[in-house]
Amino acid sequence: MDNPQAGQGGATPFTSVPIEITVSVGKARPLVRELLQLNEGSVLTLDKQLDDPVELYVGEKLIGIGVLEVVEGDGQGQLAVRLTEVVDLQTPA
Known about the structure:
The chain is mainly beta. Helices cover about 5% and strands about 30% of the residues. A four-stranded antiparallel β-sheet has the order 1-2-3-4, with no helix packed on it.
């Protein structure tokens, strides 16, 4: 059964199901000895700069690219992501 509204904002039973999006801001590659020396207050340097794009994933599937922002107003200090590119989710990977 094809739903002509699917993917176009149409209401289906699944549109109200929450999903978890993971935002990847970078990777660290410490040596094992450095990892074993980590404790509270340690700093782990990532392979990205503050203004570099971040990747958004649902599970293992890349769904978009964005940039980090700080929310103004009531959510001061809270991070957000402004999407700069949305991956075509209709194309099989």
